[in-house]
Design goal:
Helix content: 55-70%
Low-confidence stretches: 2-24, 26-39, 341-370
CATH superfamily: Rhodopsin 7-helix transmembrane proteins
Number of strands: 2
Strand order of the largest sheet: 1-2
Number of domains: 1
Radius of gyration: 23 Å
Order of helices and strands: HHHHHHHEEHHHHHHH
CATH class: Mainly Alpha
Shape: globular
Strand content: under 5%
Structural class: mainly alpha
Distance between the termini: 40 Å
């Protein structure tokens, strides 16, 4: 059960209405009782709302630009079209969906405290948002396991592009199945605050006891955070030990350095994922376990801040690529036309076909082979 749902149900027991927030990415639900409305809610202060709007807007802007840029450069430059980069593109697509399908609606829901988007989106958005989050976590696992296979077990045969496409399709299908309860067990309707005031709500509607919602919430937490983090830690610890031992006995070489550098980048991605999502999941787990945090002052604001921290992971990855990988950095600079690292070479090869120039920008640079 969502944090907001338990908050509302606990505070409004006499209403007999099991109000649940509209999606897996939302912050809090509508406050439904006259006494609760008297509580301090800092998210309704103008200054706080301005800060929240700025925070969400920055995340959306950087997330859309960064992830779109990752997708574009992999499409444009053949040197970046590797299996690992195809998985990174899949991760970028999922993060892009979170930026566009989750954050704007969550912001409006937080500021207004009610569902403003109609019945159809009530059923579609939660499932789409859950789908995107699951795709992100599963893709991180796929990348880690693929690196583990090739480095720890010294398998030189790389995954084919056809197999990569199959894995990506399976990732989306499994993610869709995991997110489907968010669309199936849902209800859209009107909730009366008083005889003269009502609000539109988009709620989870679980059959039987509300315990079913709590079980799904805890299961989703394990699948979205606990299990992926455990798999990633296992894989990258073994990868790092293998690379360390290899450097000890064989010495440094270009190929080993490329692998070490790429592994460091991917490991940093996992660390960012773990750190950014930890406060959000810890807070949600505390509420699911029946904690008194539901009665904390500024509960809604605190939950919103944790949600913002979690969503920062959707735009950090492209920054890591540009910072820690030469090929991505050169490709980003080339697309943005901020830097022309091979302009002199381009002049010397003036007579060649112009449509090959874009590929040479990355092909000529010192490869890191992500």
């Amino acid at each position: 059960m969502d944090t907001a749902d338990q908050f509302n149900t606990t505070q409004v027991e006499e209403s007999q209405f099991d109000l649940k927030s509209f999606n897996c990415c939302s912050t809090t639900g509508t406050i439904n009782d006259e006494n609760i409305l008297e509580l301090d809610d800092s998210t309704q202060l103008v200054g706080v709302q301005v800060i929240l709007i700025l925070a969400y807007s920055v995340i959306i802007l950087f997330g859309v630009i960064g992830n779109s840029l990752v997708i574009y450069v992999v499409y444009m430059f053949k040197n970046l079209q590797t299996v690992t980069n195809f998985f990174i593109v899949n991760l970028a697509v999922a993060d892009l969906l979170v930026n566009t399908l989750c954050l704007p609606f969550t912001l409006v829901y937080t500021l207004y405290g009610e569902w403003k988007f109609g019945q159809v989106l009530c059923f579609m958005l939660p499932c789409a948002q859950g789908l995107a989050v699951h795709v992100s976590t599963i893709t991180l696992n796929v990348i880690a396991l693929d690196r583990h296979r090739s480095i720890v077990y010294h398998m030189e045969t790389k995954m084919s592009r056809d197999m990569c496409a199959v894995v990506i399709v399976i990732t989306w299908v499994v993610s869709g199945l995991l997110a489907s309860p968010l669309a199936i067990f849902r209800e859209y309707g009107t909730f009366d605050l008083s005889p003269d005031e009502s609000i539109q709500v988009c709620t989870e509607k679980w059959p039987g006891s509300s315990m079913n919602g709590s079980l799904y919430s805890i299961s989703a937490l394990l699948i979205q955070y606990g299990l992926p983090l455990a798999i990633n830690c296992f894989a990258y610890i073994r990868i790092w030990n293998t690379l360390k031992n290899h450097m000890t006995y064989v010495g440094r070489n270009d190929r080993h350095q490329r692998r070490r550098k790429t592994t460091k980048m991917l490991l940093t991605m996992v660390v960012v994922f773990a750190v950014s999502w930890l406060p959000f999941h810890a807070f949600q787990l505390a509420v699911d376990m029946g904690s008194s945090v539901l009665y904390m002052k500024d509960f809604k604001l605190l939950f919103t801040v944790f949600h913002i921290v979690a969503m920062c992971s959707t735009f950090v990855n492209p920054i890591l690529y540009g910072w820690m990988n030469n090929n991505y950095r050169e490709a980003f600079f080339s697309v943005c036309k901020c830097y022309r690292p091979f302009s002199s070479r381009s002049r010397r090869s003036k007579g060649r076909e112009t449509h090959k120039n874009k590929d040479r920008v990355c092909t000529d640079c010192k490869s890191t082979n992500v």
